Amino acid sequence: MAWTKYQLFLAGLMLVTGSINTLSAKWADNFVAPGCGGSQEHSFQHPFLQAVGMFLGEFSCLAAFYLLRCRAARHPDTSADPQQPFNPLLFLPPALCDMTGTSIMYVALNMTSASSFQMLRGAVIIFTGLFSVAFLGRRLALSQWLGILATIAGLVVVGLADLLSKHDSQHKLSEVITGDLLIIMAQIIVSIQMVLEEKFVYKHNVHPLRAVGTEGLFGFVILSLLLIPMYYIPAGSFSGNPRGTLEDALDAFCQVGRQPLIALALLGNISSIAFFNFAGISVTKELSATTRMVLDSLRTVVIWALSLALGWEAFHPLQILGFLILLAGTALYNGLHRPLLARLSRGRPPAEEGERERLLGGSRTAINNAS
Hints:
Elements: H1 5-29, E1 32-34, E2 41-43, H2 47-74, H3 92-109, H4 114-120, H5 124-136, H6 142-164, H7 173-201, H8 208-230, H9 249-258, H10 260-286, H11 289-309, H12 317-333, H13 337-344
Antiparallel strand pairs: 1-2
């Protein structure tokens, strides 16, 4: 079936905004500007403040939800599923996981390349599968176990490529290794978030935009308050500001004032996350979750290509092999091989409903997983 113009628009919007989200965060890290009090020029390394901006973007999804609800009130649709009453505090535990995982990933992005950051996020499949078996009582198919093994192999190859790549003064080998490990550790937290959402949130039939926006609200408020104690907590080598603390929001605002392009990068990060979530949810509804997974894989290619073109990282052929293995693992885990096998055997294609979004049994991702 041919795609409509609207479906093509949604697919393009998801691909573009998803790429902008990671690239704008990395772009901000590349800027050098003086901070407050006449401090020397230094890189813009403020991962927790960037995470606050991301949650602000997610929070804006609530506005989109209420706009859609007002529109639906004027044009009622009797076929739509009714929204069940729920306690918003149900979103607090997954929001805390999202806040922790996102913050760790922004710290890691300061230490490693954008393409490795995007590829290593594929580790979420491993922990999601294991946690779904342990805590939700799911039984994984053989293809899903093979997908997990392929993902592990792909992660090893990507990590090896990082070890063998040339490293500049900004990204030393020890920092790259630490960043890669932090990304994988963050995926454990993201997997816990997905289990919590599956167990406590989705049974209430909450609109995805409302879910994203509510988690964004919790994340924005809590992490904004945590910026105050972070201003005083020493962080040693993990600190990217002259004071050596976990986060220095004042220093970040001073750098933005002296280098306005940083504000443009932050605005790109905030706005792209909102449009990316909307586009991702719409792609799943209009097309399929498999299409959403394929577009997310294409996003990795776009980020990788642009990072190479901009000179942000050096090319290493092992990354191609690692990406292909990770892509095969993701395809196996999400059942993308089934339509291909059905065509090869000239059998009946699988029902389209089987491609619709699922959380842990297949191609579902966390409701706001877009970093």
